[in-house]
């Protein structure tokens, strides 16, 4: 039974994602995304489940930066989870009296309209996770009047639901990933995704276009691109890429080998089955047999067999 670290405490959306990804795993709740990833790195856990992006606000930047700068980990699974937010408070609290709200930053951005409409005078404070917020609000002397979290977190910490489904959109989805220390990759399934981080060798006109060309000429479809500051000054960025296919696919292998040739550093973050099961459309000339045939043809040319 694997032991999986996750963004806790009990009752987070990440816990729900973990239970769906591996119902039999032993669960190790951690206070932050970084602590969960460090538990996987140190061997305290066999792996970790963390949020990566959501369909409203985009990337969870702590996760992106951990993947880029921390000890290497490999993504081996992903999950898309529809999330619904509830306004939770100690029994007896009434919405007009709520002055301080506590929740995770991703929940703040996804409940903006509700907060400004129903809680216009409330101060909203960032919590380490939605369940940490619910837990804190449940304490008798808490400085917070309400938390925004999953309904189940309210049940867990003895809070009442003052309002349900308060997200700006009811179809919000969060993408979670399961990571482990580097080791054998999941097999290619025909519906896979690969994640990379790329650092430029030097800043020059067309550097981004050159990277994109490596994907484009091999028919590799990108599903996410993100630029993040390197920390070396304004204008200094590195890039995150998600794209269709597995590193075992010829077109994907060739594309990332091309990036390795032209970029400063390429960090491979894993090839793993896609949660939505979508298979890539293979452009003419970019299938594995076509790459193999072209390789054989080149070998003959080099041998003078024209
Ligand atoms: O805080 C949580 O419950 C998390 O798992 C992070 C999060 C927060 C808001 C939406 C999705 C995930």
UniProtKB/TrEMBL annotation:
Pfam families (UniProt xref): ACT, PDT
Query: Which residues are annotated as site, described as Essential for prephenate dehydratase activity?
Result: 174
Name the CDD domains for this protein. Answer: ACT_CM-PDT, PBP2_Aa-PDT_like
Q: Gene3D superfamilies annotated for this entry?
A: 3.30.70.260, Periplasmic binding protein-like II
GO molecular function per UniProt: prephenate dehydratase activity
**Domain ACT, chain residue ranges per copy:** 196-273
Q: What is its EC number?
A: 4.2.1.51
Q: Which GO terms describe its cellular component?
A: cytoplasm
Q: Which domain of life is it from?
A: Bacteria
Query: Which reaction is catalysed here?
Result: prephenate + H(+) = 3-phenylpyruvate + CO2 + H2O
Q: Using the record for this protein, list the coiled-coil segments as residue ranges, or answer none.
A: none
Could you tell me what this protein is called?
Prephenate dehydratase
């Amino acid at each position: 039974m694997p032991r999986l670290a996750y963004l806790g405490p009990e009752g987070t959306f990440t816990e729900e994602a973990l239970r769906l990804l591996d119902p039999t795993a032993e669960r190790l709740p951690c206070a932050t995304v970084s602590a969960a990833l460090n538990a996987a790195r140190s061997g305290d856990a066999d792996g970790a489940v963390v949020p990566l992006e959501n369909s409203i606000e985009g990337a969870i930047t702590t996760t992106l930066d951990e993947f880029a700068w921390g000890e290497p980990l490999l993504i081996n699974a992903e999950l898309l989870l529809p999330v619904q937010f509830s306004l939770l408070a100690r029994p007896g609290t009434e919405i007009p009296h709520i002055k301080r709200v506590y929740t995770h930053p991703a929940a703040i951005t996804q409940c903006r309209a509700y907060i400004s409409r129903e809680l216009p005078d409330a101060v909203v404070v960032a919590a380490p996770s939605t369940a940490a917020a619910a837990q804190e609000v449940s304490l008798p002397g808490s400085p917070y009047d309400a938390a925004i979290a999953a309904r189940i977190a309210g049940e867990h910490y003895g809070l009442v639901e003052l309002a349900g489904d308060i997200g700006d959109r009811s179809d919000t989805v969060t993408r979670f990933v399961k990571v482990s220390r580097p080791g054998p990759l999941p097999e290619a399934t025909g519906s896979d995704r690969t994640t990379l981080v790329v650092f430029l060798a030097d800043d020059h006109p067309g550097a981004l276009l050159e990277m994109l060309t490596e994907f484009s000429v091999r028919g590799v479809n990108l599903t996410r691109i993100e630029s993040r500051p390197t920390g070396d000054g304004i204008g200094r960025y590195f890039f995150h890429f998600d794209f269709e296919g597995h590193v075992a696919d010829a077109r994907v292998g060739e594309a990332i080998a091309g990036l390795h040739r032209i970029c400063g550093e390429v960090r491979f973050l894993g090839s793993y089955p896609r949660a939505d099961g979508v298979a890539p459309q293979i452009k003419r000339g970019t299938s594995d047999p076509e790459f193999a045939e072209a390789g054989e043809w080149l070998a003959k040319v080099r041998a003078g067999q024209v």
